């Protein structure tokens, strides 16, 4: 009977996600690009794949406006792309800079997503010694942008990761075969980072711990989860299994909801049994809690889905075949280290509070919190799916004005626009955009403040238009704050993240004359100031 109930539950899951998955987020994760470096006699070829959306955001923040949505727009933006990459990426050989030139830019489809593929060629010396690759990505793209680069050496292959705190990578003894073992710590670190930054995975694991009860039960449940996600992690990375993220991500959220509901449904126990010798008789007399099948079986099923989620990072890296075995094992080891660390912290804490009478109520409150978080994620990844909770702004400070050009997702604007205007699913007419300016003006006057010489400068909406980028609608708004006196000092108070929710952020490029600065406004960092020279 329990098996039948579990089967019905999984069938319902598949139906719900299948019906809503059409609107879920796209496969590509913003801020992730790919690269491939090949070495020949005296020359190095560096090919990069960067998504249309990432290029468009970069252009906007840098002060240019080419929007790339098609191959024709890519060709029009080709000079800007190649100029940017030649300035951004560089190569040194034996301490001497190599001369670089861009050879080609074209459209390439990777992970069912359009990318701009650009090939750079660097001319270096005749004999290879040490090689240093420079990729300060945050200088042009978003602060957390990463590039996974496959390096094909003279006799070996390696995988390099550029990102925050890792802008320069030096490879020594380049002519020798690159060993596999030096790559292992990198993949272990990625696995640990992936589990701790994947809050949905962490919350699912905590839900399992809350409902486990005895240590033996917890070991069984966590082991089934580990075996399941290890199997699909390996199968997906090796190319045997493929399921689009628009199905995987909602299923992960649904697994959190299910575990939380089951925790709340179970008959509460007065304490977690931490002394089996004393409470063994009491435990045996308790009736088994209601459940759709044994929990380890359900956990195994959801573990298969979580494994597909874990595999997304390895699939993005395009790991060469020679390193895929070591990379897979070490990355999974990192995931397991992260899991063990979570269990080692949470379970002893529950063990400690088991003696208190309020322990069952605490477990219910915690499970209710997990249910709320899982439900929000499920809605975000299905009916309200969008690429990210991030808006963008280009701010220019001149003599008496502060000009702000912003891109904000239509899903963020919807609650503040008239009911008849729905920019999330259709393109608004010019008449509707003109009619909506007053609402936009009011929102900005309440959330973005410009202050100079102790006085606030009033804003005015200069332009409002709708922009489609990667299948998602943005409202592009231009505001001008006019001050009474020349701007010697400026204070920007950006409260949009607070208005749109604590997880929202606005990434802004601020320019005054030739000086330019990249600033990220969040609910905890709302103010930027320019002091008098």
Number of helical elements = 15
Tell me about the largest β-sheet: 6 strands, mixed
Q: Which structural category do the helix and sheet elements fall into?
A: alpha+beta
**Beginning-to-end CA distance, first to last residue:** 77 Å
Helix content: 40-55%
Provide a short characterization of the protein structure.
This protein is α+β, with helices and mostly antiparallel strands. Helix content is 44%, strand content 26%.
Would you give an account of this structure?
The chain is of the alpha+beta class. It contains 15 helices and 20 strands. Strands 5-6-2-1-8-9 form a 6-stranded mixed sheet. The chain has a 6-stranded mixed sheet with strand order 15-16-12-11-18-19, sandwiched between helices. The longest helix is centred in the middle third of the chain and has 33 residues. The chain is globular, with a radius of gyration of 27 Å. The termini are far apart. The N terminus is likely disordered.
């Amino acid at each position: 009977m329990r098996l039948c109930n579990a089967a019905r539950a999984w069938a319902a899951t598949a139906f719900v996600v299948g019906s809503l998955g059409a609107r879920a987020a796209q496969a590509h994760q913003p801020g992730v690009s790919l690269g491939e470096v090949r070495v020949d006699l005296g020359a190095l070829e560096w090919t990069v794949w960067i998504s249309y959306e990432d290029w468009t955001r970069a252009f906007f923040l840098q002060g240019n406006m080419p929007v790339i949505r098609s191959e024709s727009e890519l060709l029009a933006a080709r000079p800007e792309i190649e100029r940017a990459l030649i300035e951004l990426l560089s190569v040194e050989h034996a301490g001497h800079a190599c001369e670089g030139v861009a050879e080609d830019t074209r459209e390439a489809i990777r992970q069912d997503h359009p990318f701009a593929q650009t090939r750079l060629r660097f001319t270096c010396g005749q004999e290879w010694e040490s090689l240093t690759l420079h990729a300060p990505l945050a200088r042009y793209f978003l602060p957390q942008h990463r590039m996974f680069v496959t390096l094909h050496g003279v006799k070996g292959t390696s995988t390099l990761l550029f990102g925050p705190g890792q802008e320069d990578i030096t490879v020594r003894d380049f002519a020798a075969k690159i060993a596999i073992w030096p790559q292992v710590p990198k993949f272990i670190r990625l696995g640990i980072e992936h589990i701790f930054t994947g809050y949905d995975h962490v919350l699912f694991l905590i839900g399992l711990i809350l409902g486990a009860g005895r240590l033996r039960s917890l070991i069984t449940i966590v082991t089934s989860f580990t075996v399941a996600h290890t199997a699909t992690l390996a199968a997906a990375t090796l190319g045997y299994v493929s399921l689009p993220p628009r199905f995987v991500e909602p299923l992960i959220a649904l697994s959190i909801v299910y575990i939380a509901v089951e925790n709340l449904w179970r008959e509460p126990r007065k304490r977690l049994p931490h002394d089996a010798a004393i409470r063994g008789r009491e435990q045996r007399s308790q009736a088994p809690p209601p459940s759709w099948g044994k929990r380890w079986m359900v956990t195994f099923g959801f573990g298969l889905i979580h494994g597909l989620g874990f595999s997304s990072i390895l699939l993005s890296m395009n790991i060469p075949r020679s390193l895929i075995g070591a990379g897979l094992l070490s990355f999974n080891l990192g995931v397991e280290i992260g899991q063990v660390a979570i269990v080692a912290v949470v379970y002893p804490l529950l063990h400690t509070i088991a003696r208190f009478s309020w322990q069952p109520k605490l477990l219910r409150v915690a499970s209710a919190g997990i249910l709320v978080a899982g439900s929000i994620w499920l809605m975000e990844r299905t009916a309200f799916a969008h690429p990210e909770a991030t808006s963008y702004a280009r701010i220019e400070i001149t003599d008496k004005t502060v000009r702000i050009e912003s891109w904000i997702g239509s899903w963020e604007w919807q609650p503040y626009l008239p009911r008849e205007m729905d920019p999330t699913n259709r393109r608004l007419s010019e008449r509707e955009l003109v009619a909506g300016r007053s609402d936009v003006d009011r929102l900005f006057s309440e959330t973005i403040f410009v202050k100079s010489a102790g006085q606030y400068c009033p804003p005015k909406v200069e332009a409002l238009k709708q922009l489609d980028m990667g299948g998602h609608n943005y409202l592009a708004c231009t505001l001008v704050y006019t001050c009474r006196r020349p701007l010697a000092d400026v204070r920007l108070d950006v409260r949009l993240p607070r208005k749109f929710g604590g997880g929202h952020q606005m990434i802004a490029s601020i320019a005054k004359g030739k000086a330019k600065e990249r600033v990220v406004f969040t609910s905890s960092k709302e103010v930027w100031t320019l002091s008098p020279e």
